[in-house]
Amino acid sequence: MVVLARRAVSSVIAEALLIIVGVSLAATLASVVLSRVSVLQSRLVSISADAVQALSERLTYVYALYDEPNERFIIYIKNVGRYPVYPIEEFTVFFGDTSHASYYVLSTNPSPKCGCWSYEEYGTSNGVIEPGELVAFYVYNASVVRAPYYFKLVTARGSSLEVTFAP
Amino acid sequence: MAVAPVVVSSIFFLVAIVLAAALGTALIQYYASIVRMRELFKQEIEVSKAVLVVERAYLEESCVNLVLTNRGSSSVIIDEHASVLLDYYQQNGLRKIELLQFGASWFVSRTLAEVTQSPASSLAVELKPGGSAVIRACPSQQMDSSKQVTIVIVSKLGVKAEYVYTPS
After folding, report:
1. Nearest-CA residue of chain B relative to A80?
2. For A130-156, what is each residue's pLDDT tens digit?
């Protein structure tokens, strides 16, 4: 009787141990796999969202000229996409001619030959190019450039617009 | 000994369901992104099929009238979302670049069988392939008609036409 009772107890303990081991194994596996899946999911979503966002940013060149009295180039860009493009403050601008282009910095107080750029929104001035909105980029060249001129704009999300013009 | 396998397999089954749900969500989001991308590409192709050509321009009551024809194979909408830019010289010799306002300083009217409808101030015009319209652009300052005038029109989706001419 004592032997039978001991066997019954040991089988209960063994089953309990098995359950504990099984549950902890399942929990470990689940946490590992779920974390991997969540990483994969977030990467997939962010890659596709970035791709869609970059494709959604559709800026087009409208017109460009040299504004002689103010010693600056004016390049008009329009958002022809369905989504707003922002923030303009984080845009990267390169300007020059077809043989050499330099990086230009954004300035809130530009002056001739500063090697900088500023902008003016023909719509709501909020640093966002809304769909359909036109923006004038004022480029103050620091060095002498010869036509045809080259202007490149890279948005904060990485889509770019390149223009070669000779007004 | 019968309970342990049932409990363990149930847990594994639940984990599998959660995993499948997570993967399914990711795949659905990915698919939605691909659909959006396809729409954007489609729009890009549609825009590239439209070609706006300026046939001629003429001055009328200090406004420039521009006869536009869609020579492409898809429609172009000319409405308030289009931009009209005028680059001209004022009579005092100063150059002026002006973004005109729809319904206030630029108007569009359809041309049907060489007859232009009266200028509409707030109506959109759909230029079907082969269709023509007249854009009436009125500068804020009196322009020097002996000097070159440049007019640029860009539709909401980016179909552009540019015309340079000297009124007299």
Report:
1. B157
2. 999 999 999 999 888 888 999 999 998
Rounded to 5 degrees, φ, ψ at A11 are -70, -35
**For residue B114, what pLDDT is reported?**
55
Same-domain pairing of B30 and B102: no
CA B74 to chain centre: 13
Domain limits at A116?
58-165
- Kindly report the number of other CB atoms within 10 A of residue A150's CB atom: 18
Report yes or no: B145 and B168 within 8 Å, Cβ to Cβ: yes
- pLDDT tens digits for range B8-21: 778 778 878 887 88
* Whole-complex ipTM: 0.74
Reported pTM = 0.75
Q: Considering only CB atoms, which residues of chain B are within 8 Å of chain A?
A: 1, 3-4, 7-8, 11-12, 15, 18-19, 22-23, 25-26, 29-30, 33-34, 36-37, 40-41, 44, 47, 81, 83, 85, 87, 95, 97, 99, 150, 152, 154-158, 160, 162
The last residue of a domain, from among A37, A56, A75: A56
Q: Identify the pLDDT of residue B116.
A: 57
Range of the domain at B96: 52-165
The most distant pair of C-alpha atoms in chain B lies apart, rounded to whole Å, by 103
A64 and A49 within one domain: no
In terms of domains, do A73 and A151 share one? yes
CATH number of the domain enclosing B87: 2.60.40
Claim to verify: residue B63 and residue B45 sit in the same structural domain? no
Q: CB distance A49–B33 less than 8 Å?
A: yes
Contacts of A122 in chain B (CB under 8 A): 83, 99
Task: Provide the domain count of chain A.
Answer: 2
Q: Supply B74's token pair.
A: 């898809």
Place of tokens 């939605």: B32
